[in-house]
Specification:
Radius of gyration: 15 Å
Domain Stress-response A/B barrel: 8-102
Strand order of the largest sheet: 2-3-1-4
Order of helices and strands: EHEEHHE
InterPro entries: Dabb, Dimeric_a/b-barrel, HS1/DABB1-like
Strand content: 25-35%
Pfam families: Dabb
Organism: Salvia splendens
Helix content: 25-40%
Largest sheet: 4 strands, antiparallel
Protein name: Stress-response A/B barrel domain-containing protein
């Protein structure tokens, strides 16, 4: 399947539940980042906080981006035991979350 090949970005937008300390959130972010060392199909990880002045974030505060070589790599990540254990700890901390996978496209101008 040709569509499954090529770099794919896995983007998670989240709003953590109120009352969680920044220290706790930072610990989870470090654990999330460490998945790149545990899950072979995960090639890179970046994250950041919303800094938009447009106020269109709908309450989402944190953005996490993981890079994979294919959609098959994302499937391997989703079912990887280390990811499953981590996700089961992290997801209950979110008030809301959206996950989107996309293939970056270069535009010739």
């Amino acid at each position: 399947m040709e569509e499954s090949k090529g770099e794919v970005k896995h983007v998670l937008l989240a709003k953590f539940k109120d009352g969680l300390s920044e220290q706790l959130i930072d610990e989870y972010i470090k654990e999330y980042a460490n998945l790149v060392n545990l899950v072979p199909s995960m090639k890179a990880f970046r994250w950041g906080k919303d800094v938009s002045i447009e106020n269109m974030h709908q309450g989402f505060t944190h953005i996490f981006e993981s890079t994979f070589e294919s959609t098959q790599g994302i499937a391997e990540y989703v079912s990887h035991p280390d990811h499953v254990v981590f996700a089961n700890k992290l997801l209950p901390l979110f008030e809301k979350v959206i996950v989107v996978d996309f293939k970056p496209t270069k535009v010739e101008v």
